[in-house]
Amino acid sequence: MMDISKQMLYQEITDQLKNVPKEVLERISAYLSEIDENKEHINFELSEEQKESLSKIQERPYSEHTEINIFLNEMSEKYGI
């Protein structure tokens, strides 16, 4: 059973995804799978530069988003992940 904060987060994510195009949902699914496969190697402490970069990505229209593999390669090259 989920606690209230997890339920709220789940509902927030669900609400955000209601109008997302199928292609974006597929990218999100691939991204989540990648996270799950590599969860023991993930460091969730972001630098200010990383936070700013993610904010810029979030502000982009869906049509400007990149494929997950391209995004992961760019992040790997930039941050040595």
Protein topology:
Blueprint: H1 4-17, H2 22-37, H3 48-59, H4 68-79
Summing up helix and strand content along with how strands pair, one would put the structural category as mainly alpha
Number of helices: 4
Beta percentage is: under 5%
Distance between the termini: 34 Å
User: Number of DSSP strands?
Assistant: 0
- Estimate the global geometry from the Cα principal axes: globular
Give a description of the structure.
It is a single chain. By secondary structure, this protein is mostly helical. It has one domain. It contains four helices and no strands. The longest helix has 16 residues. The radius of gyration is 14 Å and the shape is globular. 0% of the residues are buried. The mean pLDDT is 82.
Which terms summarize this structure?
81 residues, mainly alpha, 4 helices, globular
In short:
The protein is mainly α and 81 residues long. It is built from four helices and no strands.
